Amino acid sequence: MSDRSGYRYSATDPLSGQPWPAMPACFVSLAVRAVAEAGFDGFRPDACLINRYEPGARLSLHQDRDEGDLSAPIVSVSLGLPAVFLFGGTLRSDRPARLRLAHGDVAVWGGPARLAYHGVAPLADGEHALAGRRRINLTFRCAGPQRRDAAE
Ligand SMILES: O=C(O)CCC(=O)C(=O)O
Ligand SMILES: [Mn+2]
């Protein structure tokens, strides 16, 4: 969730005050299988962050470092319109590779690449047969124990 005090993992949905719904078992199984195929063991995601991109939307280069367990990889599932994924090194100044991620593609990064800078170039307009004019990205993570919000 994000609010004025920033971005963080929370066990509850701030709009409803309720715990987030459980991850569908088929999603967990997809993430676990992708990680095994990429050569990492023992992945048990406890969070799935969902990003929705409309044409023109981008995600600037960043590291995923808010998770409690940085030894666990990140699994990213792309749905809908294709995107150019920027995947750099562990320094912001490292020039990123540009990788096309299309509907159904799964990317996994971990180990020495876990803190690689990455982002998404502005989404080109288009129409996807299932998702319409958008891209949806799911990232599965091991966020670790989540504190209840201080306000609760
Ligand atoms: O949309 C993507 O492919 C990447 C998403 C991402 O890096 C993030 O949510 O931290
Ligand atoms: Mn990220």
Q: What is the fold's blueprint, element by element?
A:
Blueprint: E1 2-3, E2 6-7, H1 25-37, E3 47-53, E4 59-62, E5 74-80, E6 83-87, E7 97-101, E8 106-109, E9 118-120, E10 135-141
Antiparallel strand pairs: 1-2, 3-10, 4-9, 5-8, 5-10, 6-7, 6-9
The protein binds 2-oxoglutaric acid (AKG) and manganese (II) ion.
Manganese (II) ion is lined by residues 62, 64, 118.
Global shape: globular
CATH-level-4 superfamily name: Alpha-ketoglutarate-dependent dioxygenase AlkB-like
The low-confidence parts are none
Q: What fraction, in percent, of the residue positions are helical? A: under 10%
Radius of gyration: 16 Å
The average pLDDT score comes to 93
- Which molecules other than protein and nucleic acid are bound? 2-oxoglutaric acid, manganese (II) ion
Question: Can you tell me about this structure?
Answer:
The chain is mainly beta and 152 residues long. The chain has a single domain, classed as Jelly Rolls (Sandwich). The strands form three sheets. A four-stranded antiparallel sheet has the order 3-10-5-8, covered by helices on one side. Strands 4-9-6-7 form a four-stranded antiparallel sheet, with no helix packed on it. It is globular. The structure holds 2-oxoglutaric acid and manganese (II) ion. The site of manganese (II) ion has 3 residues, from loops.
Spell out the key features of this protein.
four-stranded antiparallel sheet; Jelly Rolls; 9% helix; 1 helix; binds manganese (II) ion; mainly beta; 152 residues; binds 2-oxoglutaric acid
